Amino acid sequence: MKPKKQDQVRDFLKQIVKQGLSSESLRDWNRFYMFIARAHARRRRWDHDDVRKMLVEDGIQKAQAKVFSEVYWHGRSLLYNQDHCDTLTPQYSNWVRADGSLLS
Question: What's this model's pTM, rounded to 2 decimal places?
Fold first, then answer.
């Protein structure tokens, strides 16, 4: 069996958490935005639940992980729509209301 290929994007998130991730720090937000951009560029199919679980697994409190995972999903949505330059596609309209809020 082949060893699992190391995921550089996942490792980058672990590094951010290890260095400390605070919703009150502009530097931390900038690093988290870089993570979102890398996940998008590398076409990771992670949704907000995946990212929330990874953050909790890496030691972030559940409430804070929820905030960051929702920001992640909004960031991915913006990048997706920028790439496709059209209105909401069926894929995104399944989880976003017309007003931009997430469906439960």
Answer: 0.75
